[in-house]
Design the sequence.
């Protein structure tokens, strides 16, 4: 546990004075599992890195239903921005 505390202190020292925020190890593991999944790694393989079962990785670390919602929201935001930009461009001309 002392190694994790030392690592966390080093991380906190690095992000101090920046606009980054350390959200603890759970968020780190969740981000790692999501990035591995996006890169094509199956949960059965990611569980070996995270040292959990594939079921735990799917249930607690990979929030796939949230991911779809975020992607849909980002798509709608981009579409609204594009529509607004087109309207502004037409008004300029």
Sequence:
């Amino acid at each position: 546990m002392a190694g994790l505390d030392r690592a966390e202190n080093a991380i906190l020292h690095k992000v101090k004075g920046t606009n980054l925020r350390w959200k603890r190890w759970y968020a780190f593991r969740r981000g790692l599992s999501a990035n591995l999944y996006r890169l094509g790694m199956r949960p059965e393989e990611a569980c070996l890195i995270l040292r959990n079962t594939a079921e735990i990785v799917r249930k607690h670390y990979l929030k796939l239903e949230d991911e779809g919602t975020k992607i849909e929201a980002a798509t709608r935001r981009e579409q609204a921005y594009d529509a607004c930009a087109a309207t502004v461009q037409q008004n300029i001309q």
